[in-house]
Amino acid sequence: MATIELRQVEKKFGDLHAVKPLDLTILDGEFMVLLGPSGCGKTTTLRMIAGLETVTSGMIVLNGQDVTRRPSRERDIAMVFQFFALYPHMTVRENIAFPLQAKGEKREVIQQRVADVVRLLDIESLLNFRPGALSGGDRQRVALARALVRRPAAFMMDEPLGALDADFRETMRAEIKKLHLAQNATTVYVTHDQIEAMAMGDRIVVMSNAVVQQIGTPAQVYHDPANLFVARFIGSPGMNLIKGRYADGVIQMPGDNRYPVPDKWQGTLAGLAGGDVIVGFRPEAARVDGTGPLTAQVYADDLHGSFTILHIALQEGETILHARASRETLYPIGTPIRFDLDPDRVRFFDPRTEAALPPGK
Amino acid sequence: MADVVLQSITKRFGRVTALDGVSFDIKDGEFFVLLGPTGAGKTTTLRVIAGLEKQDGGSVLFDRAPADALSPADRDVAFVFQQYSLYPTMSVYDNLAFPLRSPMRKTPEAEIKQRVAEVAEKLRITHLIERKTAHLSGGEMQRVSLGRALVRNPRIYLMDEPLSNLDAKLREALRVELKHLQKVQHSTTLFVTHDQVEALTMADRIAVLREGRIVQMGTPQDIYDRPATTFVAQLVGTPRINLLGATCANGAVTISDSPLSVPAQNNLPSSLTLGVRPEDVQPQAEGEFEGRVALVEPLGVETVVHIIVGGQTLTSMVPGMSPLRRGDEVRFHIAREHLHFFAPDGGRIV
After folding, report:
1. With an 8 Å Cβ cutoff, are B201 and A304 in contact?
2. Which residues of chain B neighbour A218 with C-beta distances below 8 Å?
3. What is the pLDDT of residues A80-110, one digit of tens each?
4. Torsion angle, CA of B19/B22/B24/B30, rounded to 10 degrees?
5. Is domain A4-229 given the CATH code 3.40.50.300 in the classification?
6. What pTM value is reported for the model?
7. HSE (CB half, 13 Å, CA atoms) of B302?
8. Helix (H) or strand (E) holding B125
9. Does domain A237-349 correspond to CATH entry 2.40.50.140?
């Protein structure tokens, strides 16, 4: 088992920053997700931890030991890649046993460990097949088994579910997480899919443009995004963001809307130079009930099975906002609606720095 | 715009039957979605309507007149594909104007200019009009592709997974705009997708296609609330519906390998499958059943909780962030009024 520490770890390719100096401590047994759009530096970070990429500066500490200059094979870390890196000419059993054979383990040990891991993953019936005969999901299970059989100090997973279709991803997501809980091995998991990150991570590192935007639990990044990037990136749809101007306890918004600011935010907003502010709220924080101080028109309404998402605009041509509503009422295009924001779940951002504003006391 | 009717369309490729007696009618101004997995026959259906594929049996009618003898050009349909089929060396303007400049249509240049301007405005690409399409992002290119179809006023728009290549946020944004435009213009649209979220959110009506046959047709509410088969039940809804083997005896339905049981309605067979949507499994202090939490997946707006009961695992969806943790003992309620019963062959029991 392992704790992993990154101290001011930085990676440059020529003049280009792939990862700007980054501090991160991953606890023993933690499932840490690196999340961000392509090119944000998440995979490079993972590869530096695994030793597949050198660091430009900074230090990587594994279980208290500086491993910055150690080659990958001396780090006792197993990689699981997106593609099914299985040997096509070997059976499933041979594929899984391979890492142990390469380490020169005894035959009985290999047999026992392979038996354990195939039982854990419920793939006993596949042992004598070759990878070519398996479905995508089963191949991914075999790839996982091959990583698990080594019992490494830590797992590095690079978008392992990226190649699967949506249905199967949902199933495998839960399986990987259950396996993690059963084994409790420190895991670093890279994905661009925020739903996967939320569902799986003990904590999430949100990255963009080579910079860490926020490190937090799923609840923290969802409810208290550190900045506009995180607010937009997390959630489907992302957080609603409205430009407004604060004066005398009220925020003036498009469409002649006046939003009375909850008391605990008054002090913070009164301190803003010029009064320009961005109001943020999640779709479920909008209360659409025929009353409320804000007005909008329906642009479209979407059934999502058990609920409806309303797409609304404060006035024509303005940014589309999203509000979650019950299925019981119909909202044709153009319907005027009134709504309020849950005072506990409204957030405010500084438009110049894009950072979240702290609530007052 | 027109209404379009398919009457028992059959299409074979060699020994493979791609479409097996497919019938449906798309009403004038309707947004009709064909939903199904890869290989179900969705694209073949579109191609038959467009005249790009000749059916082996059955008829296509436009406004109640048979269209089978019409060439693709005479059918006057507009296609939007998953792959953007734009001319890379032409400007966005010329790409949009292209369908109107066809020698068959002979549209005056002044009218072309006006129509292109209108469509560009609707799709928010006015600022790109002078650019070469090769220099656009994926989302911009797909807007132009849509624009090239929308610039005409055909009988029907045929859209073949037009949003599939876009990333999640872009797909969502374009989905809403497409739906808004369709509703405002009352255009007749047949939209093909394998994505159940697209189908539920966009359609006036959905036809679910499987192996060349329609298994269910109805509004998104019908499909979600009253799935006709276990296949449809699993196809729509995230997370997926719980499907549980069960037996019926002495007025009770008992879920296999668990202590769960609910009162039976009339006419149930002795062996059946019980369907329970995750939102109908609700943890609550006074719930009648008891289980143990196997996994908690916080998605922000809601939390997916996996509950072990005997040898079964139920998926539950609760609003917001759940305080439940793995290993917790939990009591829960199952909404009896929303249960789905399926016969051993997968068909819904009414």
Report:
1. yes
2. 298, 300, 321
3. 776 557 888 999 999 999 989 988 999 999 9
4. -10
5. yes
6. 0.88
7. 17
8. none
9. yes
